[in-house]
Amino acid sequence: MSFIINMICGAIIGIANIIPGVSGGTMAVMLNIYDKLISSVTGLRKNFKKSILFLIPVLIGAGVGIVAFSKLLEYLLDSHPMPTFFFFIGLIAGSLPLVFRKASETKFRPVSIIPFVIFFVVMAVLAFVNTSEAEESKTVLEMNVINWFYLFFGSVLAAMCMIIPGVSGSMILMIIGLYPTVLISIAHLTKAPVDSITVLIPVGLGVIVGILGGAKLIDICIKKFPQMTFYGIMGLMAGSLISLYRNSVFEFNVEGYISIAVLLAGFGISILFGSKKLADFIDSRKKVKNKKVKD
Has this prediction a pTM greater than 0.85? Predict the structure, then answer.
């Protein structure tokens, strides 16, 4: 049961990671597996078996989610951008109370407001960065040494941002002009496998390096400065809502009312998955399973 749950969580994180403005780290927080995900990545050497048993279903789910939903995402963002973005606004807004609870586990210190303000401002500024030219600049890359390293280091940067709740790795790819190339390569994996794999190899290597390095950094911050880290995360998440809203271009019409409805649905789903009751339920199911195995 836990394998399937972790795989579903991985699929949700994978889908989120290919949506500009939506953070896979945020989805991990929403699903209440963020801390375990970071500790599993950073603890691969010390607790290899335990870490790998958790990471395998998550990675499988993420891979399936990215490949299966890349074409659907392409269609939804092109044909129905407003309700699509509003759904993810609801998901992120609904996950803020969970992060606030984590930040409130220790006595409040006024200095913790500083990272919230800084990261909120950073995300707000990024939201107003004009990425339209970057999106159109490189839909197809002619593979050479320079472009290989461009894809690799761009993916390292995006992956490091990707595991931070509130920061979208896809948005970083969009800003540096690599998003269309990566999305098209994933979506056309079956049609043009050679060209797609040629592009995705440096991207994949960059993601691995970025996640391993970034996860260690985040793990240190959470252990040494938990409250400031989570307040910073809240700032990133709140700031990312501005980017999503700007991309949605809200209008008062039928699709606008649908957008409001899916926003509320996303908010409710996020609250449900982030609730302590659901976390306790999942933990209780795991304990029941472990008990049965021992018996």
Answer: no
Two tokens at 83?
A: 């309700």
What tokens were used for 23? 């953070």
Strand, coil or helix: 257: helix
The 3-state secondary structure of 15-39, one letter per residue:
HHHCCCCCCHHHHHHHCCCHHHHHH
Among residues 222, 226, 224, 221, which one has the least CA distance to residue 107?
226
- C-alpha atoms less than 13 angstroms from C-alpha of 105 in its C-beta half-sphere: 13
Q: Is 138 helix (H, G, I), strand (E, B) or coil?
A: coil
CA-based end-to-end distance of the chain:
18
CA distances to 40, 49, 58, 132 from 2, in Å: 15, 16, 11, 41
* Distance of alpha carbon 50 from alpha carbon 44, whole angstroms: 8
**How many other C-beta atoms lie within 10 A of the C-beta of residue 87?**
24
Taking phi first (over 0 means left), then psi (-120 to 50 degrees means alpha), and beta for anything else, what does residue 236 get?
alpha
Q: How many CB atoms lie within 10 A of CB 168?
A: 31
Taking only the tens place, the pLDDT of each residue in 15-29 is 888 876 667 877 787
Q: Report residue 202: phi and psi, to 5°.
A: -65, -30
